[in-house]
Amino acid sequence: MGLWLGLCFGICFLTGLVSHYAQEPSHPIPFPTSPSWGYRLTQGLHVTTGTAAIPLLLVKLWTVYPRLFERLPSGELRRLRALLVTLLERASIAVLVAAAIFQLATGLMNSAQWYPWSFSFRSTHYALAWVAIGALVVHIAVKLPVIRQALGGDVESSELDRPGATEQGVLSRRGLLRTTWVAAAVAVVATAGSTVPLLRRVSVLGVRSGEGPQGVPVNKSAEAAGIGEQQVGESYRLEVVGPSGTVRLSREELLAMPQHDEELPIACVEGWSASGRWSGVRVRDLTALAGATGGEDVVVTSLQESGPFRVTTLQGNFVDDDRTLLALGLAGEPLDLDHGFPCRVIAPNRPGVLQTKWVARLEVQA
Amino acid sequence: MTGRLVLGALGVAVGCYGAWLMLSRGDGEDLRSAAVWLAGGVLLHDVVLAGLTLALGVVVTRVLPTPARAPATVALVVLGSLTLVAVPVLGRFGAKADNPTLLDRPYVAAWLVLVALAVVAVVVASLVRARRAAGGSRSHA
């Protein structure tokens, strides 16, 4: 069980690093634009393995619960070293348990947009991921001999943890393991439909059914972003700023430019994802109007008044990709206001928070 | 032994990096709130959740008839952890009036159906086990 729990934490950690890096404004090593479903996969894995880890961690903690009340080695001074080692080990376990519960609980709550705390979720979840993984590595180093013995030994043997056991429990050890796999599988199937379309109908406890305007759910509505009809009406102009000056375009002028269709997913950091058929103008066609020659980063500003992702950076390799659109339509219709009308960024392999909606301005960086 | 020491040192270094990230980037309010949640999670598990589990364990081993014990334990582990996973959607704490695409399923009804299914499964499994045990003792007699 520890092995599977460790595996889940490992996958969560690595996919979390990918997601964190993808959200950084500057990429010393360019984040790839292909495959377009890459981020959908890594973030789906992140949330799925995190969900599966909850039953695993609970059963793991329950089975070692009696150890919480174990006495410390006491007695003479020559036992001091043993005492010190025990205290250090217990401290590392305290850190591991606290960080593990924290990561799973805050991650789960974040996936349902529930934020009853005052710390910044992204930076705290990221910092404590390093703490959790560090404590896990220490734990593995301490327990390596036991792990080796247990993995090589008979699963039913109580030699390693309950040497004095005289009575058979209600469940055999194999029975408890199987029960835990079932619990993890049920938790995943009941929730993963938010990102795995095949599971949509059975994921009765999923955060989203996958329904939404034009077949795609919404993360932040126009109302929540403070976008009203007056900002997106006839007077709306997209500003494109570049080395050769500023170009202002109405929605009609954007629609008069060469249009392209792309099937691309929206994959949110909170774990849900959905694929859509977007239509619009290539971003590099737009920046070329303002004198961009290719490879430049573009700063995208939204009409929304506030929010941490009002201004985002579209890195040069994303700008240059043919599939990166300033979308004007979705599913054959004009973009819904909640999807970013008059126009939004949609790029392959990119976290949803960076697919800026209600775009007001594109600024080519020198 | 050297390998374990190196691994342990690596773990300490990685953990310290995380602590440094936390301390250097968070402000006072961030740290206070995160500390409350770190300690609160452990307390909630070690006192409330573990206490509840122990109480349920007593019920299962003392009150239930023998053939029902194992099926009930399996059902409680599966349903208990699923319920915990479902707390944010059951409470709809993150629901927003302006966004009907979020938390848009009948969660309480779904949870009740799952509980009913679990109860049926436990009853059926217990009856099967009881009959098998009775049949077994008859054939031995």
From TrEMBL, chain A:
Residues 234-365 form the Oxidoreductase molybdopterin-binding domain. The keyword Transcription regulation does not apply. Pfam families: Oxidored_molyb (PF00174). The chain crosses the membrane at residues 43-62, 82-105, 125-142, 181-199. Keywords: Membrane, Transmembrane, Transmembrane helix. This is Molybdopterin-dependent oxidoreductase.
Automatic annotation (TrEMBL), chain B:
Keywords: Membrane, Transmembrane, Transmembrane helix. The chain crosses the membrane at residues 34-60, 72-95, 107-128. It comes from the Bacteria. PROSITE patterns: PROKAR_LIPOPROTEIN. This is DUF3995 domain-containing protein.
